[in-house]
Amino acid sequence: MKKLENKVAVVTGASKGIGAGIAKDLAAAGASVVVNYSSSKEGADKVVAEIVSNGGRAIAIQGDVSNQADVDRLFAETKTAFGDADILVNNAGIYKFNTIEEVTADEFHRQFDTNVLGLLLATRGAVKGFGEKGGSVINIGSVVSRITPAGSSIYTATKGAVDAITHVLSKELGAKKIRVNSINPGVVETEGTHTAGFIGSDLQKWAEQTSPLGRIGQPNDIAPVAVFLASDDSAWLTGETILAGGGVR
Hints:
alpha/beta
């Protein structure tokens, strides 16, 4: 029997990158997976098709995690398709580096709405359905909350908030058999980091020089950690922040 057999997992922002990798690995471990996406239907459908072609179960559901109505619909459609969720991966996130001179209220709210409010709304939606069986919430933070790179004040603040929320909710939800942990990746090669110009930049060079392993990450470096936190292998872990950055800290 696979580790996550008969489990239902919702992965937010799973149409590409780290989220897509996690969705595929959860499915390979036996979970029925909801691939949530905000705008990239084509990407989400591709992830679902790959999971199904490998014998797994998955559907794509559109929804903006910062919108309460979308979150309500996400979990309602999940329940209709597979039943209540057992696992939530809060992966949806956006980023943009800004110097202090470039900081605006609009950019602050754009990042905080998705990275922090979205995480809270999705977690609340999942908790409603976990019931007496409990569940596992896995937040995707970032090593930036430790290394605090210049020009990242807004983004780093959102990921610092993720660290804090992980610790708070682990204490708040433990009595309900709900575990809350965080994975904080370092620089990972994804469509997003290519688009942002991080790949091939001084940031990539710095990460490679700083990492004891001498390279940046790939989505398949992160996904197995999520499977571990979703499964009973980590039944005694909650409130933990796992740095998955090749030793960068």
